[in-house]
Design brief:
Blueprint (H helix, E strand, L loop, with lengths): L2 H9 L6 H13 L4 H14 L3 H12 L15 E5 L7 H11 L4 E5 L9 H5 L11 H11 L1 E5 L6 H11 L7 H14 L4 E8 L8 H17 L3 E8 L7 E2 L1 H12 L5 H17 L5 H13 L2 H12 L4 H5 L9 E6 L4 E6 L1 H13 L13 E4 L6 E2 L4 E7 L5 H10 L1 E4 L9 E5 L1
Helix pairs in contact: 1-3, 2-4, 4-9, 5-11, 5-12, 5-14, 9-10, 12-13, 16-17
The structure holds uracil.
Uracil (URA) binds next to helix 9.
């Protein structure tokens, strides 16, 4: 078998066999297939797509490219949640401690930022001392003791995904349905969870821009997970507007802490409550209505925040920062972005907001880039709000003054102010079971 022939076959629009897909994944992980051939194949997949059998074969090959974990030493039902990626999407920081405080075990492996979207691991690393690399014994001990641990994807878990994820990030091949489905489900199936809730984002800040595409992606992942014996459910949630008001790592952790205290933004809280309720329901903790009540009580009685604090302590993060969020370092430079005319914010290009935050230092342009944890954006106005000319739309934060101008330009060109008040769609758009 030759890699060249596999690339050519996909380039010409034919379906790849299970053997060809395995040959590619095994060869890429071993280093026999170079990045330039892997990029060419990803681009061919981007243009020609993959059918369900090919996507399933790619998912299983990614799963089998490394260790398949055994969580049988964790006591209780294990539930995971994974987002397809968004802007201001800090839901895992809120949802995971809520359900863990209610008796469900969350042994979570999270990702770093990808393209214009943020990643949970980068956000957690903005907490002083927080360790995202734990050996498996420590990880399992913390989950049994605290109910939750969140770590980065270890080098031995789905290494094919780790390599492809970084490659796709810099070769404009992220937003492909089979590549997203196999990336997410390949690593989810390598972890040993009983139930998985997927948060499939849709809209301008998501990799899938239309509801139709997002539903298709959700059904594909739910079917792959069910075939592998997992209890699965996906919510399709809105990403035409950033979630909450904070975009950028430390800024988002602070907003997550506010939300765990019951003082979070309305939209962000609604999405967190829906995800957490569905995780609990899937884990067999009652009807959806009962689970929603439990979620609200975990926020209101402080147990969710307490679980988050216990997790940060167990993972060696500085809990004083969680108790007093003003201790998070703030960026040296800030700039207020002002409206250039009066009117309603009719729509925003949420991906553009993500790129503006990335330009400020909150994300990576290359695999090697270091994150500026205090960089990002705090929105003052969101879609549907009326603004007067000269009114502050947002504040940009960075430690590199040079970055302010391009980030401001990107932010303004992503904000559309019109005379017409927009009609906002619901945040929870659909559910796929
Ligand atoms: N999240 C992932 O884990 N993989 C993707 O390809 C996109 C979002």
């Amino acid at each position: 078998m030759r890699t060249y022939d596999i690339i050519k076959k996909k380039r010409d629009g034919y379906a790849l066999s299970n053997e060809e897909i395995r040959f590619f994944i095994d060869g890429y992980v071993k280093g026999d297939i170079p990045d330039y051939q892997a990029s060419a194949l990803c681009m061919a997949i981007f243009y020609k797509g993959m059918n369900v059998d090919e996507t399933t074969a790619l998912t299983l090959a990614i799963r089998d490219s490394g260790d398949v974990l055994d969580f049988s030493e964790i006591n209780g039902v294990r539930v995971d949640k994974h987002s397809t990626g968004g802007v201001g999407d800090k839901t895992s920081l809120v949802v995971a401690p809520i359900v863990a405080s209610l008796g469900v075990k969350v042994a979570k492996m999270s990702g770093r930022g990808l393209g214009h979207t943020g990643g949970t691991v980068d956000k957690l690393e903005s907490i002083e001392g927080f360790k995202v690399d734990l050996d498996s014994k420590t990880f399992i001990d913390i989950v049994n003791r605290v109910g939750i641990a969140i770590v980065g994807q270890s080098a031995t878990l789905a290494p094919a995904d780790k390599m492809l994820y970084a490659l796709r990030d810099v070769t404009a091949t992220v937003d492909s349905m089979p590549l997203i489905a196999s990336s997410i489900m390949g690593k989810k199936l390598a972890a040993d969870d009983d139930c998985i809730v997927l948060d499939v984002k849709t809209g301008s800040g998501s990799f899938m821009k239309t509801v139709e595409e997002s539903k298709q992606l959700a059904s594909l992942m739910v079917d792959i997970g069910k075939k592998a014996g997992k209890k699965m459910l996906a919510l399709i949630t809105d990403m035409d507007i950033p979630l909450g008001y904070a975009i950028g790592n430390a800024l988002e952790v602070k907003e997550a802490i506010d939300t765990l205290k019951g003082n979070g933004p309305r939209d962000f809280t609604e999405v967190c409550v829906a995800l957490a309720s569905n995780m609990l329901h899937l884990a067999g903790h009652g009807s959806e209505e009962e689970c929603e009540q439990k979620v609200y009580s975990a926020i209101n009685n402080g147990s969710a925040l307490n679980t988050f604090i216990e997790m940060v302590k167990a993972q060696e993060g500085n809990v004083e920062w969680i108790k007093s969020p003003e201790l998070f370092p703030t960026a040296r430079y800030l700039r207020q972005v002002k409206a250039e005319k009066s009117g309603y914010i009719n729509r925003v290009d949420t991906e553009g907001y993500g790129i503006s935050a990335l330009l400020l230092g909150a994300g990576r342009n290359t695999k090697e880039d270091k994150i500026d944890y205090s960089a990002g954006i705090i929105l003052s106005k969101k879609t549907g709000d009326y603004v007067k000319s000269g009114e502050v739309l947002a504040t940009l934060y960075t430690n590199d003054k040079e970055k302010l101008a391009s980030a401001e330009k990107k932010f303004l060109s992503s904000t559309f102010i019109e005379d017409e008040k927009p009609i906002l769609r619901p945040l929870i758009i659909d559910k796929v079971k």
